Structures
1.
Amino acid sequence: MENQIDMKALFSLSYGMYIVSTASEGKLNGQIANAVMQITADPIHITTCLNKENMTCGMIQKSGFFGISVLELDVPMTFLGLFGFKSGRDIDKFADTKYIMGPTGAPLVTDWTLSVFDAKVTNTIELPTHILFVGEIVSASSIKDAKPLTYADYHLVKKGKSPKTAPTFGFNALK
Amino acid sequence: MENQIDMKALFSLSYGMYIVSTASEGKLNGQIANAVMQITADPIHITTCLNKENMTCGMIQKSGFFGISVLELDVPMTFLGLFGFKSGRDIDKFADTKYIMGPTGAPLVTDWTLSVFDAKVTNTIELPTHILFVGEIVSASSIKDAKPLTYADYHLVKKGKSPKTAPTFGFNALK
């Protein structure tokens, strides 16, 4: 087998769509991410991976905690745009957003959300463009019963794009 | 918000279903995993997380490389059982399985598979029960055009169970 990379092959991986949030120096912030998964069951660890250029990434490095909101299928593109294509450097993403405070101090977005949890960072890996965060779950709550938005739905149903800082940048070009 | 953990909240995360494979000391082996994702785009890194009790985990620690096969929706339960509920310590999982050799040396299963890729391990994190592997992609190929099997499909459509070594053990009890 040859040493070639067919990007279409990588886009067959399945993901949900999430808001990853944190708080640092009195500021609340968060971003859309697809790279979130549970990796151990006892104790429960989850992982996410964020681009170093994104404000949320640097804030989690400072705070040492993060929240996750699992987005529902019916979430409107305007809401995804607020958290996915705007920067907390320019606007307060939480000004008109419903959220609850997790025990870690992370603001957990509850708009268009199936469930929320928050975690304390236990390990990090610095990659060339991104930081991978591993955290131990501190709290987890169900918010509503509905279908989750998958990354495939986002591209195929909602015709969504990926910003250049996404781990899977280029996905929309091939779907 | 209280410091409680509702497991149902964690089960709203979305995953695909994969075979993670490797080769070490002349032996080919692999296992079913749901915890696989792409985490960077340039260069391309992926991550997976395997239980230390599973033979594949120890073999990747020795070999330093792993392959991923993205399973299709139509994969039969007998095939999932072979890779998910049997151990390479007892049987040769590759004896009657179609595969190609990736450039790293990982055997890439092509039965019931949408796409395959292989990666060299660049980073690991040791957690209490699991090892998280981060690898840089060496090759990626599309095998067939079909729907991927998601973890939700596995539980809801196929009525599949999770072994006790799964990161998401307990999932089937609540679905």
Note: The helical segments of chain B are 7-10, 55-63, 77-84, 151-156, 171-174.
2.
Amino acid sequence: MTTNLQRELETMLPAEDRLLDPADCWAYGADNSRLHALPEAVAFPRDAGAIVELVRLCRSLRTPLVVRGRGTGTTGAVVPVHGGLVLSMERMNRILEVDPANRWLVTEPGATNSEVQQAAGQHGFFWPPDPTSSAFCSIGGNLGCNAAGPRAVKYGTPRDNTLGLAAVAGTGDPLRTGVYTTKGVVGYDLTRLLIGSEGTLAVITEATLRLTPLPETRQLLQAVYRDMRAAAAAVARIMAQPATPCALEFMDAAAIGMIRGYADTALPEQAGAMLMIEVDGARAQIGLAAEAVRRAASGDGCLAIEVAATPEDAERLWRTRKALSPALRNIAPKKINEDVVVPVSRIPDLIDGLQALGRRYGITIVNFGHAGNGNIHVNLLVDPEDPVQMQAAERCLDEVFTLVLALRGTLSGEHGIGLVKREFVRRELDPAALRLMRGLQRVFDPDGIMNPGKSLPDALEAT
Amino acid sequence: MTTNLQRELETMLPAEDRLLDPADCWAYGADNSRLHALPEAVAFPRDAGAIVELVRLCRSLRTPLVVRGRGTGTTGAVVPVHGGLVLSMERMNRILEVDPANRWLVTEPGATNSEVQQAAGQHGFFWPPDPTSSAFCSIGGNLGCNAAGPRAVKYGTPRDNTLGLAAVAGTGDPLRTGVYTTKGVVGYDLTRLLIGSEGTLAVITEATLRLTPLPETRQLLQAVYRDMRAAAAAVARIMAQPATPCALEFMDAAAIGMIRGYADTALPEQAGAMLMIEVDGARAQIGLAAEAVRRAASGDGCLAIEVAATPEDAERLWRTRKALSPALRNIAPKKINEDVVVPVSRIPDLIDGLQALGRRYGITIVNFGHAGNGNIHVNLLVDPEDPVQMQAAERCLDEVFTLVLALRGTLSGEHGIGLVKREFVRRELDPAALRLMRGLQRVFDPDGIMNPGKSLPDALEAT
């Protein structure tokens, strides 16, 4: 049975620019959340003009349109739960312009993060957001989720590093937002409104990214603490001095325990928390920056600090951090990975609360993440084959979110909402703010076709 | 004759919280643009609850509501051209919370920029935006205009330095936006939408500002160039290396000529452009940073570079820059001061174009500003008593804006739109983007009471 959408696409697009067979479409129904739904069709637009046509088609048919980068997201944001058309941006992957004198790079959204880094790097620049999947994730996906990664502690998120966008709104209108300069106050800030909106307002067709000069060199420090409270106090001291690190990662006691069992780490026996701190800058200054950070990292509860003297040393220290993922896989078949954020001073309260919840629900919880931003990756280790444990995990997660909000935190720092956190959004957002967001959504997408069922929760009542 | 608004305010507010007499209201009808319009009434709310009542009152009466900081703006953004109520935020000026461990400061909008700097400074922090009128301008005004100042080149604008807001929308609903953390992707970015919206969407009642550690010290350099092209090339070189200056100001040949006639400056005879470059950082590193910048500032067309060796030296060098304002006042009774922005590499084209326009219209044009952002303060020196010259200035300005947009620039970097640039906005903004902005405005302000006649131009047709 052929649907109206499929019939229209057959005449509208050449065969190589679309998929209509369910077997072909299957792979475009999932992301890295393991959720899946089958779209009616997949289109591979090659320019903004094609996207205008496709949005208008979906509007006329009242059919959902789900824009998709490379599917590396973890929240189901690109899973077409209401069917319709998946717009895969993989063929709009050209880098259109690199302007080193003005520090911008114009790219189509399908380029990967690492392709952008390479193009910028040839001129001595980089684009700071890097969600550690840079070889696979697309710029459009980074922008759709405001995905940041470890360097955000010094350089900010995509919202801080994007000058302007071209997009096609859910109305079918192509538009341009923002400027080519680092200042500009003409009209409302649509650029940042679209960034992080998970394809619910518009399809981004081009982005002007703000570039940053590549630092000459980096230096890594590893600091071990008696407990999380001592480590969090060190994070606050590090962030209060001007030599802001370009990465400030942490692991809690449970995470350290995991890697201890898995790899030879040479960490002190009493280690209750660990920080990995990286500074970057000019070669002539890096030693002074590392020393400033070392001084700030020292203090009550600090058991040891090691400054990597050589690249091999740094490699060895990062190996400790990198041992964590295989260690977790080794222990539990599945981890539920959340990316909550709390103010830095509340990290110890969060970790204490998480350990208490873990004990109450009989679930091992392992925490690590971007300490400088208070962005904690909370990992519930579970067996998906065990329905009792999975139910317990669900109740536990509910309490995790309550705890995070009580600590003045937020439910997601970079993974986004998608499907999986959607019903929790109501707990965080002010009802009036949520009503206004729904109103904004209707302005961009009057027929409700843009990635329906994602990001904002459904209205409880007519608004 | 008493209006409905005045009658309602008499019962709603104690006498000391309102002004109804036109003579008393007079002073609240102007800003620093010298434009003026008399409001029906002025209210001095003391909390968000009072603002909710006042917005609802204005909504029920379909009366304009114009929120006002300290009136230091230059665009007429707070001039009540359609009458109604002026909401002066001067009594909501408490700094509510400073949290050094989490690097935030919560303030009411009526606090001045310098009061915030003092409160943050006691803990070793500052708030980077500083539109050089810090003693007089309010935080609410800074946020309303996204006013940035010279430090934006390193530290960004208010949009980059604000975590969250409390506000009352034009619907009368109080709301909270944003987070207390430096990452957060739950819902759409209403914080940045409200910043720079010039009171046309909501009244900001509280702001959570992101603090930055105070640098230990600063160092100033003055670099003189043969012409603007050589200076702009130096700006691009300076911005392409990692030691980003905390100020990167410039003056063109006309500006140098002005101060030469006015003060003893010891600048080389052939000076065609000048850069004032300031670096900040730790005492141990400042010399290296200054040296990196000195190297980048050197090159073809550079006539001289002086590094201030002592605070007295720096004082003397800044005196050159500060001589400009009195010099301009000495020469012309009035200056029309625009704050356009162009990509750094296009600054020379802009300056050349401005000089040609000046010759054609018989108007002296003097340019200086924030070179690192490409943010140029274009000053047309005119005699307001001379109607022929004033007409010529108007036509000239029109061509200035055309030139700026042709160079991929923007009409305003920090002063905003207000009344004075409103009819030019249509030339910059994409029509679809403008339609969407009007739609967003209707969501926040369904009755069109929020600072009507500002920021966005009137619709030409029904939309």
Note: The longest helix of chain B spans residues 387-406.
3.
Amino acid sequence: MVDEETIVLVKEYAVGLHHYELGLVKGRLEAGETVLEGAERELKEEIGFGAHDLVEITALSLAPGYMTHVTHVVLARDLYPEKLEGDEPEALEMVHWPLADLHSLVQRPDCTEGRSIAALYITRDYLQQEQ
Amino acid sequence: MVDEETIVLVKEYAVGLHHYELGLVKGRLEAGETVLEGAERELKEEIGFGAHDLVEITALSLAPGYMTHVTHVVLARDLYPEKLEGDEPEALEMVHWPLADLHSLVQRPDCTEGRSIAALYITRDYLQQEQ
């Protein structure tokens, strides 16, 4: 979150779909890393920010019928600029989006990933409960 | 939907996660089937209902970075009993859930699949717009 109402999305080329997909910063944990350490590293690599406030709010599965893959959803707030070199082939374009307007976001043809969409709605619920 | 406020979920054993997962009726399209035909067939196989009113409300991707898999989200209303034999190894347990209470649902440890959760929130938005 760049402020209490605005999320950061990134445009990343989706090889599987042959278009740029708008979604959340994400990546794989490295050996020995905690979930929060991995989340902050990915933030620094993909958008050039660290976060003073990181909290894991849920974990999602991908295709539980046949895959063991689990995605941890981390809410990052109180950002500060810090860039790390990552493995992205090109710099990612950042897009700011109001969390209140997920309805328009999910109608875009370039925002289709189930995990990202689920994470955004769950985060919105989480923040409403927090208030 | 069994009525305007209540969704049907199924409990299905998730081999990838070694537990029963609560999610939406789902399956693969067969050759020559339209999205709506496939959706209704899966409903008949998994919960023993057809639907007079079927509409595709969105399509979701699974892992667009490396997979081409697309999931069509179909809203089924005006259900009627009709059972088809499917390929499920055992009968699926049905659970009725109020669409207004997705917040509790996603906090359950057995409801983790990104696509199902995204589909439910998008459907809730869709129905709110429809009113």
Note: Strands of chain A lie at 6-14, 19-23, 49-61, 70-81, 93-98.
